[in-house]
Design goal:
The structure is a single chain. It is built from 14 helices and 18 strands. By secondary structure, it is an alpha/beta fold. The strands form 6 sheets. Strands 4-3-2-9-13-10-18 form a 7-stranded mixed beta sheet, with helices on both faces. Strands 1-11-12 form a 3-stranded antiparallel beta sheet. The longest helix has 20 residues, at about 70-85. The radius of gyration is 22 Å and the shape is globular. The structure holds uridine 5'-triphosphate (UTP).
Length: about 400
């Protein structure tokens, strides 16, 4: 893109300020900035102007979860079906590790965090150990796709290679990078991270399938005959991955998505709950739950919106492929964005200072025709690490790991 073309594009979106230091840049830096301006989707920034409209929900009604008693009664049959699918190579796993983990506050990718106390035990290692349980049970390797972002790709791949994938078969590990989106101040103006570089952040975890497709990895999916992808977050160290019972239940119930859910521990707990929205599966975020919904009861007298999602979903690939071209809703999230101050010096803010633009994996559920919410025992499968201390922290996850017999 030429300077003239860049100016034209920037003027269209009111972003001319990003050329403030252009004349100070070397020729290479100038070209890099122009290339970045060309590649950046600025149309999404317009969303700031009608931010209030973005969160509009349809009519919410309950969606019954398959609860523990039903799962126990059918465990053998579900597990048999799931293991058969895994052994036939029909199940792959997708680790979402492109996030910035700003709340944890470590400079390294979250998966490199050492949760061990008397020995090294990294978050990535916990996840791979959990997946290895199924590899052993099924006696077959499972393809593991790892999503990173521009911000952590190098360090993530280097770390896992150095650690020899914690014993996982290297040919079964595939990396791909997610897309980035510009980050802005509260007026929707793009921040500069350096004089010749726009501030960007990963575009949320909802772009994973499109990014996987763009990176060419669907070839691997097709060649291997993978029909189901189990998507999961990097931060839940107790996560069961490619869980045969869960896979089997989703297949037997003929759903195109399975969602692992836990019983909330309080009506106002900060987790998204599974529901129907305008008759289709959906997730209502905790901040969208009205008092009426929070206190609603189903026909058995139980709380109607009581099963929280834990970012562990099993998607049917053929249905994902129908969606890949569809538009995902945009979420505008307040975050701490490293940027230049008025004097052009780099700063790392202590408090949120602007917006990131994200797509979320939970919105993919609403685009699917059917979903099986599958209850799991909270203390056995849900130990998220979002913060250093307190709720959902390194501390709480360590306690849960120990409760489950993991030596730290
Ligand atoms: P979170 O919502 O906890 O976001 O991600 P985060 O960026 O990791 O952490 P904070 O909010 O800055 O503290 C949930 C899961 O989605 C992945 C994360 O890596 C984590 O597994 N994720 C999130 C991505 O892969 N890409 C993204 O752009 C955002």
């Amino acid at each position: 893109m030429t300077l003239e073309q860049a100016k034209e594009k920037l003027a269209k979106y009111g972003q001319e300020h990003v050329l403030k230091y252009y004349e100070e840049l070397s020729e290479t830096e100038k070209q890099t900035l122009l290339d970045q301006i060309e590649a950046t989707d600025m149309s999404i920034l317009e969303a700031c102007k009608h931010k209030g409209d973005l969160a509009k929900k349809g009519v919410i009604t309950p969606l019954a979860a398959m609860q523990l008693n039903e799962i126990e009664a059918n465990r053998d049959s579900f597990t048999e079906t799931g293991l058969a699918a895994i052994r036939a190579g029909k199940v792959g796993a997708v680790l979402l590790a492109g996030g910035m983990g700003t709340r944890l506050g470590s400079d390294d990718p979250k998966g490199m965090y050492n949760v061990g106390l008397t020995r090294e035990l990294y978050i990535f290692e916990c996840l791979i150990n959990n997946l290895m349980d199924v590899v052993r049970q099924a006696d077959t390797w499972i393809h593991l796709f790892v999503m990173t972002s521009d911000k952590n790709h190098e360090s993530t791949t280097r770390f896992l290679q150095e650690k020899k994938f914690f014993g996982y078969q290297p040919e079964y590990v595939h990396f791909f990078k997610q897309e980035m989106a510009a980050a802005t101040n509260y007026e929707g103006k793009i921040y500069l991270e350096e004089k010749g570089k726009l501030s960007t952040s990963p575009n949320g975890n909802g772009g994973w399938f499109v990014s996987m497709k763009n990176s060419g990895l669907l070839d691997v999916v097709h060649r291997a005959g993978i029909e189901w992808l189990n998507v999961f977050a990097v931060d839940n160290v107790l996560q069961r991955i490619a869980d045969p019972c869960f896979v089997g239940a989703t297949i037997q119930k003929e759903c195109v998505v399975g969602a692992k859910v836990v019983r909330k521990n309080a009506p106002d707990e900060k987790v998204g709950v599974i529901c129907l929205e305008d008759g289709r599966p959906s997730i209502v975020e905790y901040y969208e739950l009205t008092d009426e919904l929070m206190n609603a009861r189903d026909e058995n007298g139980d709380p109607a919106y009581y099963f929280g999602v834990i970012l562990n979903y099993l998607f049917k690939v053929s249905d994902l492929e129908k969606l890949a071209a569809g538009n995902m809703p945009l979420h505008i999230v307040e975050k701490k964005i490293p940027c230049l101050d008025e004097q052009g010096d780099p700063i790392k803010p202590e408090e949120p200072n602007g917006y990131k633009f994200e797509n979320l994996v939970l919105d993919m559920i609403h685009q699917m025709d059917s979903c099986l919410p599958f209850e799991v025992v909270r203390n056995k499968e849900f130990a998220p690490i979002k913060n250093k201390t307190g709720v959902d922290s390194v501390e709480s996850a360590r306690a849960l790991l120990q409760e489950n017999g993991v030596v730290l």
